[in-house]
Design goal:
Elements: H1 2-19, H2 32-50, H3 56-120, H4 124-130, H5 134-207, H6 211-232, E1 237-244, E2 249-253, E3 266-272, E4 275-277, E5 288-290, E6 318-322, H7 328-332, E7 345-348, E8 353-355, E9 360-368, E10 372-380, E11 385-390, E12 392-393
Parallel strand pairs: 5-6
Antiparallel strand pairs: 1-9, 2-8, 2-12, 3-4, 3-7, 3-11, 6-7, 9-10, 10-11
Amino acid sequence: MGLLKKAIFALVILTLFLFFGKPAGAQTCKSKEECEKLITEYEQKLKSLGEQKSTLSQQIQFMDTQIYLTTLRIQETERQIELTEKEIEELTNRIERLNTSLDYLTRLLLKKIAEGYKRREIPFITIFLDSDNASMLVNRLKYARVTQENDRRVAFQLQQAKLNFEQQKQLREQKKLDLDQLKATLDKQKIDLDNQKGAKQRLLVQTQNDERTYQGLLARARAEFAAIQGIIAGAGTETKLRDVSKGETIASLISGASCNSSGTHLHFIVQEGGSVNSPFSYLKSVDNQNCSGSSCGSGDGDPFNPSGSWDWPLSPTIKMYQGYGETWAVRNTWVGQVYRFHNGVDIEGASSNVTAVSDGTLYRGSYAVGCALSYAKLVHKDSNVITLYLHVYIQ
């Protein structure tokens, strides 16, 4: 019976995903003007929806509009790529024709230069003495002038052809750069689209398309965010326990859902001089699995770039659910309604033991927002650094 329910639920989710995959009345744009008009229209619609997405249906409508807007941008970029490729092809053909013309004009000019040298080898007095009459002399002089004019015209045409040839080559190189940039933009847009579709699918799975479940997720996230802000500000209820050494076990992860947390994880925060900093600046490189994007190992998640010297507070392999700063979840999921900046890292390790990243003084703490969020606080020895370990219990 359990498998049947899961199969039915999966079918419902797939149906909803396909049904909501494009906003009502959405269409494919067929020209630059139409694309630009639709993109502007849906940008305004997305902004309006972003100000009123308080329910699950509004959130899904927002996501559908976001997905469709990205699809429109992809269509416009693909159209620009096709147009640029045609322009490059036309420029290549034009350059080939110009190159042929250059070859012809160069040969013609060389030929005329050679004929000009031959004419110079005949002294003017010889032409005068060999002429039978004045009329023939005049004709020869006119011919000489016409030949000189033709030579100058060929030289000018050659110069113009060379200039045009270089201009067309430069234009083609610029178009190639434009094409590379467009392709890079298209790759990013496709990644964005995959992220947006993945975020929508994740939301439907998390909420089972149930409004009550969705409101519960929002409420827990808001409560957790308020608690974390209070803890960082030093407003938590704290009890000094003992001095501890680096690597010593100081707490254990709470298994499963707990106060304002939907599952097992450690929210790890680093403060120095009262400011919250990226934990990656302090932690050393470690084996990891990045699950902060649309799926584990998807490659679209938050950067995992530790550059410090600390051992991690959990034993590897480290599984990261959310990174530091403006994260994938903030940009692509409903948590962006609650906060725009993630002030720590959400991680899990090979065991539930939480260890001190430095020598220092250990405190047990809690902060109540509807429930008591428990944490450990380590004041580092001979330092202005404090580390916080949330969603843990201390025996």
